[in-house]
Write a structure and sequence with these properties.
By secondary structure, the protein is α/β, with parallel strands linked by helices. It has three helices and five strands, in the order ββαβαβαβ. α1 packs parallel to α2.
Amino acid sequence: MTMNMNLIKRGSEGELQLIGYIDAGNAADVEKILVDLVSKFDTLILDMGKLEYVSSAGLRAFKHAFMDMRAKHGILAAKNVTKSVMEVLEITGFTRLFKFM
């Protein structure tokens, strides 16, 4: 499956648009990018408006980003979450990781 990302920088805030699918084949790459962005921004917003699917490996990437952001007292936020991805976040309890915009 394919995954594309676009980053918008606004000073200490970064917004990452996630496009496509996060699955076992690309979740490690997504996680590396998230960890890097968490180190650069105080607030990281994940725009999930074009994220069609997230697997358990993708959820693990979100969890690591949340833990790293929390350790530095930053904010991990999500916006435009699609219905299918929101259902996964709700079922797994991952809604507590994000501030929703």
